[in-house]
Amino acid sequence: MSGDATATFFAATKAAGTTVEVDFGDKTTAKHAIGYWSIRGLGAPLAMMMCASKTPFTLFLYDIVEKGEAGWNSDYFSAKGEYIKEYKQPLWNLPFCVDRENKEIIVQTNAIFAHLGRACGMFGDNAIAASKCEQLLGEIYDLRCVMSGYAYGGGEVEAVISAGKKHFRKLEQWMEIQAENSDDDVVVHLVDGKYSAPDFHLYQMLDHFEALAKANDSDLYANNDMKRMKAFKEGFQSLPENQSYLKSWLHTELPFNNCMAGFGSLPGPKTYIHGESAKDATWRAKGVVDLVFP
């Protein structure tokens, strides 16, 4: 398929408040696009993976805005039905992935991790390694559900951290096995000592839980029962391939969660207050933004 044909498949959408064209200095046509809310959430590990592999991509960010005295609205809601019809994808949801080269829309988070992971060379070197990636992505998504349940549904902080640690401890044991199979004291990759899609989702979830603990005057690692998790987090964020993303506004200026969330709905993390915080939502409606990394 020609470059022009690739560029025209889901090239733009008015429903996204911000469209980020991410490039690595060679002005290569982006073969993939990611669509998600204008938050970190599930979009962050996908974008971080693309940046680490230096794979150009388009990022469509959809804003949630206030409606009336207590409601919320988004241009995405009205656009979704048209997307389904135009692109013949009845499973449409956020996040979504646009494969421009093959003219396909991929939905469902872990399917997107797998599709983009393969495109980035970060989904294992063989069938067994790919299966490990799939297992880990499932476990980490269960972990995310714990945080999402708290952020959007409320509850006790101690209870949500305790529930999260049940998953972290499983991953701690996984890392112990990885350490046994390698000569590295610090494990910074979950599968065969190489970058893979679950690395990025685990990093983001550790960042999220760590921020929740800190916001409540606690330390996620205080009981010394997550030594591998702490070492992974510190080691992974220091890797040179991750610096472009971590130093960009995609990481530093987007909130963890959407504005109706009780935690992390403003950067900081702070909490968005309906009727008061719109002025602080500076990440909304940026239009088309070029983000060029060296």
> Total strand count, please?
8
Under the CATH scheme, which class of the largest domain?
A: Alpha Beta
Distance between the termini: 27 Å
Would you identify the CATH H-level superfamily of the largest domain?
Answer: Glutaredoxin
Helix coverage percent: 40-55%
* CATH topology label of the largest domain: Glutaredoxin
| Gyration radius from CA atoms, angstroms | 19 Å
Describe this structure in words.
This protein has 294 residues and is an alpha/beta fold. The chain folds into two domains: 3-122 and 247-292, Glutaredoxin; 127-245, Glutathione S-transferase Yfyf (Class Pi), Chain A, domain 2. Helices cover 45% and strands 13% of the residues. The protein has ten helices and eight strands. The chain has helices spanning 3-8, 43-52, 75-87, 109-120, 127-153, 157-180, 197-215, 227-238, 243-246, 249-252; strands at 18-23, 32-37, 57-62, 65-67, 71-73, 96-99, 104-107, 287-292. A six-stranded mixed beta sheet has the order 7-6-2-3-1-8, sandwiched between helices. A two-stranded antiparallel sheet has the order 4-5. A hairpin with a 3-residue loop joins strand 4 (65-67) and strand 5 (71-73). Helix 2 packs across helix 7 (197-215). It is globular.
Concise overview:
This protein is α/β, with parallel strands linked by helices and 294 residues long.
Jot down its keywords:
globular, Glutathione S-transferase Yfyf (Class Pi), Chain A, domain 2, Glutaredoxin, 45% helix, alpha/beta, 294 residues, single chain, 6-stranded mixed sheet, two-stranded antiparallel sheet
